[in-house]
């Protein structure tokens, strides 16, 4: 593939370590190099067009050619290309963005800390949990409950809160301080004959037992994504979060909502918290905050936590935490413009209009011989791949069917994502019904390819 040593492909292989890539195999296959974007489409360097059915990494909400974001970045670059917010300095975009966020986040949240990525926002959330509990004189109340399959990023502590084996084995993670509870997928983890209501009862009971066993006085917070994306697009049963939160409240355990994927309309409401009845004490956002045009994330904390940490920092004489680029003015200006576009174009109404079409097309594929369950909400969805529908036998990773379906869809000019046993869609929020048909037609054909090659 990369016989010419001066080709971009050869230079890529010679110089780059790619995230989430089989590095050995990459030496043979080389990269797909994306060169430009237009709406929901991206084009590779040979000019081939792809419908980006994953919005990049679940992130590019406004598509790949939103000029207003380019202009917002340019204006800010010309005025003040960089500055920081340490030591009480500030910039107009970081102030305006914090205000704009606080207008739309769930009630009770009152202050914003900026960061640059989802992992950092979650790491920062954990540190706030620790600092807060020191502030209120509960220095033992520090451990954080994460969930099996949860994905919160890959920095040392976010990676520890992440509940995925691949992020742990060979990486010496998790480090201490994390407890683990169940993944709320009834399809994958329900016991034979167990109803969804019984399943939720069991999960709630398991959480209660875990907390009692480990001691509530040692547990500071619980972290969850409203819809877990990378763990399989796990849509929880309707009463799961209210029931879980009731247990947490009783034990004085904070709720951290990781809205890195769900935030800003993905689930059909502004936040996954709104869709699933979550009342967070801390919320993290990234990705669609800036339509992923520039790296920026935020940890939004309750007014109650903010008051305590402010007083504690006052006592210590410093709040010794913060990233050089926190609230970076260019990233903040782009994020602010992104939020303005969401409001002006009523992106939530658009999602509510087109999402039923995506969900209906996904559900129709539940009849496919390879598909055990079609699940999703808003503009995010997944097909669970199985070898046997009746016993819900999940396709073994070794069969390689998920990646094969992904490759066949890509040949057809559509980007979806596969895990070994599921395929995912999460298109830009601006997608039209006709583009949804294009995406789903290609996915359907790629599933047929997968079936033909599995047999
Ligand atoms: N949290 C969730 C729910 C995510 O999906 C991701 C990334 O996909 C992260 C956190 C980590 O974000 P980042 O890759 O920006 O560090």
TrEMBL record:
PANTHER family xrefs: ADENOSYLMETHIONINE-8-AMINO-7-OXONONANOATE AMINOTRANSFERASE (PTHR42684:SF3)
NCBIfam families in the record: PRK06105.1 (NF004767)
InterPro entries (alphabetical): Aminotrans_3, Aminotrans_3_PPA_site, PyrdxlP-dep_Trfase, PyrdxlP-dep_Trfase_major, PyrdxlP-dep_Trfase_small
PROSITE patterns on file: AA_TRANSFER_CLASS_3 (PS00600)
Family: Belongs to the class-III pyridoxal-phosphate-dependent aminotransferase family.
Cofactor: pyridoxal 5'-phosphate
One GO MF term: transaminase activity
Name used for this protein in its record: Aspartate aminotransferase family protein
Domain of life, source organism: Bacteria
Cross-referenced Gene3D superfamilies: Aspartate Aminotransferase, domain 1 (3.90.1150.10), Type I PLP-dependent aspartate aminotransferase-like (Major domain) (3.40.640.10)
Keyword entries, A-Z: Aminotransferase, Pyridoxal phosphate, Transferase
